[in-house]
Design brief:
Oligomer: single chain
Strand content: over 45%
Largest sheet: 5 strands, antiparallel
Length: about 375
């Protein structure tokens, strides 16, 4: 049976999802996917991540500024594994380390990048600083002051201080995603400050190593690490994909950039996810606005990309997509649907829309392992 966990927006985020959902196809018709309902009652689990070795899924509870763990308790069911752990305003992305010992939460609302520990059973390890404050308050009757989690990495200043957004507002930090690099460091995007930050993990936290400054107004959003070590970064505002590489001294820099599509319209189209094929020959990004999927071919040793095709996504507001067994699954946040699109194995081009399944406000698709 083909199965996927679905993250989604609930009423607090103007959606209709009740929690983490299940999308599945029968063995006789694996591509005829059907929404089987919510398997948790959870507020707006907008992004999901799988533990590398345990049957545990982590969800970014975007409306609740928290992250929560869920253990698989049956063939297609999840149960809470501990209480939610505070992260930051608008936490929209979580990425789990290959060791399974911690995750990185990216918070769009306040720009926080948060490291949260994971124990041997998959539980999230609560912030020791806040737990100590809670204990002191309980024992001494002192008021509990709000403190930032110990694993929060301080955001750097705006490299374009004084610049305004396209709407004339002051720029704000908006962390949006994290990716683990081959040398153990971590890359995160700041969509508001046009930065890719490189961090070094330390015990219980992160230390900023350096930053890569992208052109003002590009809005770096999500990333894909290529097997060659190159880092591809899609931008929400300028409809580009920047390719970064590390120099001999370990400092990252931009080596190339390309438009997601020659006909992408800046200010109308807003790229969301960036996903690659298993063989890393092709990348795909979806353009919210025109509701299309752009295909790009990886050139050389991963140092450059080439736009090759643009096709209908089959959904409204394609917020997330992934490549699965030679097909593209696309989550339509506003159409309450998930589309299944055939891909040309030779050229990488999206082909026909094979199937569309109804699902409430889907924002993330995660294969059930």
């Amino acid at each position: 049976m083909t199965r996927f966990w679905l993250g989604g927006y609930g009423p607090a985020m103007d959606g209709s999802a009740d929690g983490v959902g299940l999308l599945a196809g029968d063995e006789s018709a694996p591509t005829a996917l059907e929404y089987r309902g919510a398997v948790t009652q959870t507020s707006s689990p907008s992004w999901l991540a799988q533990h590398p070795s345990l049957d545990v899924v982590y969800a970014a509870l975007e409306a609740d500024a928290a992250v929560q763990a869920f253990a698989r308790s049956g063939e297609s069911t999840l149960r809470p594994l501990g209480d939610p752990v505070a992260a930051g305003d608008g936490v929209c992305h979580v990425a789990v380390s290959s060791s399974g010992s911690f995750l990185i939460a990216s918070c769009y609302g306040d720009g926080r990048v948060v490291r949260i520990g994971i124990d041997a059973q998959g539980h999230l390890v609560p912030d020791a600083v806040n737990k100590a404050a809670e204990l002191r308050a309980a024992l001494l009757g002192e008021p509990l002051e709000e403190t930032a989690p110990a694993g929060v990495a301080a955001a750097a200043s705006d490299p374009y201080a004084g610049e305004l957004t396209a709407t004339g507002e002051a720029r704000s930090s908006h962390a949006h995603s994290a990716a683990f690099l081959a040398d153990g460091r971590i890359a995160t995007t700041d969509l508001g400050f046009d930065l890719v930050r490189i961090w070094r993990p330390i015990a219980g936290g992160l230390v900023l190593d350096h930053e890569v400054v992208l052109p003002v107004g590009t809005g770096p959003r999500h990333m894909v690490v290529h097997p060659s070590g190159h880092l591809h970064v899609v931008t929400e505002y300028s409809c580009e994909v920047f390719t970064l590489a590390a120099g001999r001294d370990g400092t990252w820099a931009v080596v190339s950039s390309v438009l997601t599509s020659p006909i992408a319209e800046i200010g109308v189209d807003f790229p969301a996810e960036l996903a690659r094929t298993r063989d890393a020959r092709f990348l795909y990004t979806a353009l919210r606005g025109s509701n299309t999927v752009a295909a790009l071919r990886v050139r050389g040793g991963g140092e450059a990309l080439e736009s090759i095709a643009l096709a209908d996504s089959g959904v409204d507001w394609p917020r997330h997509h992934l490549v699965h067994e030679g097909k593209l699954l696309v989550a339509g946040q506003r159409s309450d649907t998930v589309a299944l699109i055939d891909l040309d194995e030779r050229t990488g081009a999206p082909l026909d829309i094979r199937h569309i399944a109804q699902a409430p406000a889907p924002t993330h698709i995660l294969p059930v392992r």
